[in-house]
Amino acid sequence: MKITDLVFTYPEELVATSPQRPSRVMWVENNQPCEISLVELMGKMTAGDVLVVNNTRVLKRRVFSGDVEILFLKQNSELEWEVLFPSKKYKIGQSLELPLGVTMTLKEKGRPQTVTLNQAVTEDYFQKVAELPLPPYIQKARNERHTVDADESWYQTAWAKEPGSFAAPTASLHFSKTDMDQLRAQGVQIVEVTLHVGLGTFLPVTAEDLNDHDMHEEYVEISAQSWQQIQTAREKGHLIWSLGTTTTRSLESAAGGLLQGSAVEGFRGFTKLLIQPGYKFKVVQRLLTNFHQPESTLLALVSGFSSLETVKTCYLWAIERKFRLFSYGDLTVWVD
């Protein structure tokens, strides 16, 4: 697949800057889109079906030095970090002043960059001074680089508990704990997995051919109990609904032998799975996900589940009907 295959245009005003509850839902079956309500969607999940969700929690790691934004990614040692910031105009050895007396010195350029700090920082530091890493297109649509207070709840799922992500698994933002209780009352099994969304979320695809794109690895963990619930449901003929592309990559990585462990002990490890047209899904039968940006691996994944032609046709249909786009936007559901 060429990255240019994943190009589409959209009006900027359709980029959602806050969630809308309940969201609109585009249901795609037999390559045809239609609009249903969230209540109707939940009604399509029947007793014995499994809805798989990602329980990762988004880290507050976006720190500002004046108007320079630094995303803290990984701690290499007590004082050394890997970060992402616009370092082009900075020289090796140059320093930036961060809040609460912390000085950051550029040690090595690249993507990400390596920096050293003059003092150790802890989770408590980030809770005091950092912001959630909202996608740049939301900042642009708001004309505001900083988060608003409501983002603290808007940009975390209702079941977020395992800290480690640099972006929210946004398909989950459409559902509340009450919705999950309703599904359980219907006999739907809610199964949790963990995938910590990584650096790749922020970096554009630069390869012309997706086969040449180096996916950034992301950590996955699936318990033996979760895996057994999924396999038992499939064996009994029930459907596996995957809430989001992160959940989908988790399940397919385990099924594809890309993680350490087994069905008996559970799975864990890092995945670099890139799903695109031609991929044969082994677990997921229903995909729930947001609208995704042009030229993204997430859009390639949806095209792999459906087809590129269907996805482009359905996106055009949704844009004409003014569905809200991207992280805070509306929901799509794809039937295999």
Provide an overview of this structure.
With 336 residues, the chain is of the alpha/beta class. Helix content is 24%, strand content 26%. The protein contains 9 helices and 18 strands. The strands form 3 sheets. A 10-stranded mixed sheet has the order 2-1-18-17-14-3-12-13-16-15. A 6-stranded antiparallel sheet has the order 5-6-7-10-9-8, with no helix packed on it. Strand 1 and strand 2 form a beta hairpin. Helix 8 crosses helix 9.
Order of helices and strands: EEHEEEEEEEEHHHEHEEHEHEEEHHE
Which structural category do the helix and sheet elements fall into?
alpha/beta
Name the overall outline.
globular
Strand content: 25-35%
User: For the residues shown, what is the average pLDDT?
Assistant: 96
Poorly predicted spans: none
Characterize the largest beta sheet: strand count, sense, and whether it forms a barrel: 10 strands, mixed
CA(first)-CA(last) distance = 20 Å
Can you count the helices? 9
How many E strands?
Answer: 18
What does the radius of gyration come to?
20 Å
Helix content: 10-25%
Please give the order of strands in the largest beta sheet. Answer: 2-1-18-17-14-3-12-13-16-15
Question: What does the secondary structure layout of this molecule look like, with pairings?
Answer:
Blueprint: E1 25-29, E2 32-36, H1 38-44, E3 50-54, E4 56-58, E5 62-65, E6 68-75, E7 80-84, E8 95-97, E9 103-108, E10 113-117, H2 123-129, H3 136-142, H4 151-154, E11 162-165, H5 177-185, E12 189-195, E13 218-222, H6 224-235, E14 240-243, H7 245-255, E15 260-262, E16 266-271, E17 286-290, H8 297-305, H9 308-320, E18 331-335
Parallel strand pairs: 1-18, 3-12, 3-14, 4-11, 14-17
Antiparallel strand pairs: 1-2, 5-6, 6-7, 7-10, 8-9, 9-10, 12-13, 13-16, 15-16, 17-18
